Amino acid sequence: MAKIESAFLDLTYLDRLATGTTVVHRLDPRVKVLTAALFVVCVVSFDKYVVAAMLPFAVYLMIIMRLGEIPAGYVINKLIVASPFALMVGMFNPFLDQQTVLLLGSWAISGGWVSFLSILLRFCLTVTAMLVLIATTGFNQVCLALERLGIPNIFAAQLLMLYRYIFVLLEEGQRMHRARTLRSFQQRGMGMKQYAYLLGQLLLRTIDRGQRIHLAMLCRGFDGTIRIRQTLRITTRDIVVFLAGGMVLVAMRRFNIALLLGNFITELLQ
User: Fold this and answer.
1) Hey, which end of the chain has fewer CB within 10 Å, N or C?
2) 19: Cβ–Cβ under 8 A, 6 or more apart, which residues?
3) What 8-state DSSP symbol labels residue 190?
4) CA 169, CA 205: separation in Å to the nearest integer?
5) For the chain, what is the radius of gyration of the CA atoms?
6) Does the pLDDT of residue 187 top 80, yes or no?
7) How many CB atoms lie within 10 A of CB 39?
8) Which pLDDT belongs to residue 248?
9) Residue 165 pLDDT greater than 90, yes or no
10) pTM summary value
11) Which SS3 state, helix, strand or coil, does residue 19 take?
12) Closest by alpha carbon to 69, among 31, 16, 33?
């Protein structure tokens, strides 16, 4: 139950971060969504053997996190939780690609290890960018921005419903786990087989709850459109920030900043 409660508190903490008043929070949501999308496109477009050229993007994210007052420890914890997915994607690369592409002294590093490290770095950068976007905007505002940018209404509505009823699902799972714990004496009935039964019951309860929610929404005139009274207005500051951020991202993608900086430092030392 502690894990379920921890997951619930993590989600609510992300919402609390979105209520901040920093300069990043005050930007128009559409500007932040477009900038985040450009960031992800730039990161994933690198070659599979590129590592150092993506490091300036990490510095870019750290600056945004600093301006938005996003705790680094919280982001790192989320990355650790999701990291097994990235590890499973690239864990076989060192065995499939053993051609040497880099020499560090007497150590020969194969392309598989380089591509594996590249996958992990891309994962960290893109997931962090999405966490920072939600933590400085709020998921409701992200969905509103997507709708205003021309994303189909059904897609924005599905995202909003999914996020809203994650809390309901966690509460339902928390109640089931608590009831199971109270009925288990001397740790009986706490095996993995019982967890499978609980997951099946949770699925059935989720379907039933979803049907009741859908009927309630239809009775209130829901026609598939999420209506939000808040209006969005792009200011000159938003345009300047988007253009400046976009040029920085494109420049980091176009030029190997890490290599240029390394060459510059080497020339100074000589």
Assistant:
1) C
2) 25, 138
3) -
4) 9
5) 23
6) no
7) 26
8) 94
9) no
10) 0.81
11) coil
12) 16
